[in-house]
Amino acid sequence: MGQPLIYLYEQMKEEQVESLRQMTPDHIIIDAKRESAQINDDDIEIMLGWDDTLGQRLLASETSRLKWVQSVSAGVDSYDLKRFAEKGILLSNASGIHSISISEHVLGVLLAEFRGIRTSVVNQSKKEWTRKNITYRQLSKQKMLIVGTGHIGQQLAVFAQGLGLQTYGVNTSGHVTNGFIECYSHKNMSRIVNEMDIVVNILPLTDETYQMYNERMFLAMKPGTVFVNVGRGPSVNTNDLVHALETEQLSFAALDVFEEEPLPEDSPLWQMENVLITPHISGLTPEFKTKLMRIFTQNLSQFLKEGTLAKNEIALHQGY
């Protein structure tokens, strides 16, 4: 077995790679997007980003020394968490990096709808100066239910309160979290969702959250509710969502994630006037790699000393 490797599947800046080399003199750094060096897969101890083809080989190998993977996304539902747990591989995510971007996105799509901006963009493309089809509402004082009160949910609550919204939260246990008037548990969500004007999904995808937004949940909502999904597409039953929009149980939906991506051309969502579609862009973040490197180097420093992680470690049995 050779010298342990740190495999950078996510391409970083050259100066960032050099700083990692300075941190880890006992490891070989492989910058996968720039180098084509022949390596022994089993020597990879740490991976930044996830090369699924290579990763599956490592998970199947009885001699792999892989000990830790740093994901570049907040969601980790694409990983084989059961296999990670069986092999004792640590997994950390990029939670926190996208909180401002996603929060701004949520408020942006809401303002576009509530202030008639979305309709005005359509009218502009047709060179129509008209107010006849412009509808507007006051976003301030609306009750917003933020489903998922982690880094992103808390940031969204702060921003939303700045615009005068009343923010409520849903999390696993219903524990109180900063930025929320009140929080509720997942199991009690259907009981209180009918009091809310806006429901924003930010949950990761787990067995418990798969298709949780279905006909039953939509019917539990107040007629005319606004729904925003910046969490995971498979948390929503698309057919039930379409029906809720057609019957105006939901007055409007802003959707950034979908069960199937790209969204198929024959999806009825494309043609619905009360839907705003964005192509999974809410998490796009300026200086992403700089922010990711801060998480990775903090974790790397502690991993090299103690074999543990400093932040964002995933509880593999929970999925987040």
Q: How would a textbook summarize the main sheet?
A: 7 strands, parallel
Which stretches are poorly predicted, pLDDT < 50 over at least 5 residues? none
Measured as a percent range, the helix fraction is 25-40%
* Rg from Cα: 22 Å
Write down the CATH class of the largest domain: Alpha Beta
SSE arrangement, N to C: EHEEHEHEHHEHEEHEHEHEEH
Number of domains: 2
Mean pLDDT, to the nearest integer, reads 96
Termini separation:
33 Å
Strand share of the residues? Answer: 15-25%
Biggest sheet, strands in spatial order?
8-7-6-9-10-11-12
Return the CATH topology of the largest domain: Rossmann fold
| Overall strand count | 12
Secondary-structure-based class equals alpha/beta
Domain D-isomer specific 2-hydroxyacid dehydrogenase NAD-binding: 108-282
Protein name: Hydroxyacid dehydrogenase
Domain D-isomer specific 2-hydroxyacid dehydrogenase catalytic: 7-310
Keywords: NAD, Oxidoreductase
Description:
- The protein is an alpha/beta fold and 320 residues long.
- It has two domains: 112 residues, Rossmann fold (3-Layer(aba) Sandwich); 179 residues, Rossmann fold.
- It is built from ten helices and twelve strands.
- The strands form two sheets. A seven-stranded parallel beta sheet has the order 8-7-6-9-10-11-12. A five-stranded parallel beta sheet has the order 2-1-3-4-5, covered by helices on one side.
- Strand 4, helix 3 and strand 5 form a beta-alpha-beta unit.
- It is elongated and about 70 Å long.
- 37% of the residues are buried.
- It holds the Pfam family 2-Hacid_dh.
- GO terms for molecular function: NAD binding; oxidoreductase activity, acting on the CH-OH group of donors, NAD or NADP as acceptor.
- Keywords: NAD, Oxidoreductase.
- This is Hydroxyacid dehydrogenase.
- InterPro entries: D-isomer_2_OHA_DH_cat_dom (IPR006139), D-isomer_DH_NAD-bd (IPR006140), NAD(P)-bd_dom_sf (IPR036291).
